[in-house]
Amino acid sequence: MTHPAVIDELMTLVDPGKVLTDAASLEAYGKDWTQHYPPAPSAIVLPKTIEQVQAIVAWANRHRIALVPSGGRTGLSAGAVAANGEVVVAFDYMNQVLAFNAFDRTVVCQPGVVTRQLQQFAEEHGLYYPVDFASSGSSQIGGNIGTNAGGIKVIRYGMTRNWVAGLKVVTGKGELLELNKDLIKNATGYDLRQLFIGAEGTLGFVVEATMRLDRAPRNLTAMVLGTPDFDSIMPVLHAFQGRLDLTAFEFFSDKALAKVMGRGDVPPPFDTDCPFYALLEFEASNEDVANEALATFEHCVEQGWVLDGVMSQSETQLKNLWKLREYISETISHWTPYKNDISVTVSKVPAFLREIDAIVAEHYPDYEVVWYGHIGDGNLHLNILKPDDMSKDAFFASCARVNKWVFEIVERYNGSISAEHGVGMTKRDYLAYSRSPEEIACMKAIKAVFDPNGIMNPGKIFAPE
By CB neighbour count within 10 A (0-12 exposed, 13-18 middle, 19+ buried), where does 187 fall? Predict the structure, then answer.
């Protein structure tokens, strides 16, 4: 643990009361949504300015103290967990929207701005911030950038990196870099901005971000369709993509729906029981679009791909249909799920899922498996639920044994072991299944340039050497 005198020095660098060492704070700020590693930070520091962040990094370099960035702590790969005496740098007090440019459709945010705060700001100005996911009410923009967050609208709008116009970052050397300067076109060598997006704080800390906004969508409408098997979902996607510009295309299994229905606060979409469900969304900007959606639905029924379906007729119905998908993660958290966030190209999804489902069923016949995900962009969430009579440690150890087989399938399909949750600590030992030795060597060399003393979120992405 860090020496008390060194912590006293840290206290001089920030506002009074903004270094926390009490047990409750260490517990709260030292973890994220993963439960694999117990938090054990030495202290929590809450800067309010860029200059304070630079001073903290300079202090950490002098004393060779590791720093861990902390935003909304909603991560699912232990990327924001401080498990080895690190000092957590939490950005809760750098939470202001600093500027807005209506002509350029950009907004300058501090890293602690909550995702929903940015979404609401955009709505108030007649615009739209499209990166959206279940944790939008607590996740922060800095963390979204650090993990290149995706979510439910990727099929139309892409990942977080598509919406970052410019960044200010403090590197592991304490340098302040202004990257891209909000330009749309900039062909002047390496785009260092993109290196920091998805780097999980291992190169430096995002201290300011200029985010792009889009026009507000018109009359968003959702459909939930029940299918007789998983293979039917892909021709349904193909049929709708051929006729409509989809803003989302999600899927979930009957087991996922049953868990959400068990809450008792969400109405079922329809009476027909189906093994799999697709949720799609589009802009019904006029009656012709809505009619096209209904005609496509009828075509899918005639082909045997869809057994039943419903289309939202109001904003309330739209929200209720989305709850069927968005409430899954929160609902199954009661069972301490072992999560895998994997992806392949969309065309390979059916065969890919079948192989992984067979492996899990063979080795874990007594475990309940819940599938859901962003099928429109090839991203699947595999969740194995912990039996009530099994300890967390024994359960995680048991699930970890199957990772080798799951990730071998991912590698064979040229997929990713982490589609949108980052690598952190939970996936770092499996990085080689998605990245070649040459790529990993280049990534480590890049880290050494920006963080020569290895103080920035060490042990994340790469296993300690």
Answer: exposed
pLDDT of residue 1: 61
Q: Find tokens 């990730």 and name the residue.
A: 407
**Rounded to whole angstroms, how far apart are CA atoms 252 and 266?**
15
* Predicted local confidence at residue 368, as pLDDT: 93
* CB contact set of 33 (below 8 Å; sequence gap of 6+): 73, 74, 75, 76, 135, 333
- Per run of 10 residues, the mean pLDDT along the chain (length 465 residues) is 85 98 96 88 98 98 97 90 97 98 98 97 98 89 96 95 98 98 95 98 98 97 97 96 96 96 93 97 95 98 98 96 94 90 94 92 90 94 93 89 91 96 94 97 98 98 87
CA 51 to chain CA centroid, Å, is: 29
Burial class (CB in 10 A: 0-12, 13-18, 19+), 440: middle
* Complete domains list, the chain, with CATH: 4-93 (3.30.43.10), 97-215 (3.30.465.10), 220-329 (3.30.70.2190), 336-437 (3.30.70.2740)
Cross-strand bridge partners of residue 68 = 88
3-state secondary structure 35-83: CCCCCCCCEEECCCCHHHHHHHHHHHHHHCCCEEEECCCCCCCCCCCCC
State the pairing for strand pair 214-215/204-212: unpaired
Element (H, E) at 307: none
Q: What is the pLDDT of residue 129?
A: 98
Contacts 24+ apart (CB under 8 A), 354-357: 354/230, 355/409, 356/380, 356/382, 356/406, 356/409
CB 420 within 8 A of CB 379: yes
- Reading across the β-sheet that carries 19-20, which strands appear in turn? 19-20, 43-45, 87-90, 67-70
CA distances from 346 to 155, 237, 310 (A): 11, 10, 25
Q: Comparing C-alpha atoms, which of 234, 330, 321, 307 is closest to residue 279?
A: 321
In sequence order, the 6+-apart residues with CB closer than 8 A to the CB of 348 are 378, 413, 415
Query: How many residues in total does the chain contain?
Result: 465
Look-up: residue for tokens 């895998």? 340
Looking at the DSSP bridge assignments, the partners of residue 186 are none
pLDDT score for 75:
87
d(CA 162, CA 440): 24
Residue 115 to residue 112: CA distance in whole angstroms: 9
pLDDT of residue 400: 85
Distance, C-alpha 28 to centroid of its chain:
20
Q: Which two tokens stand for residue 66?
A: 């590791």
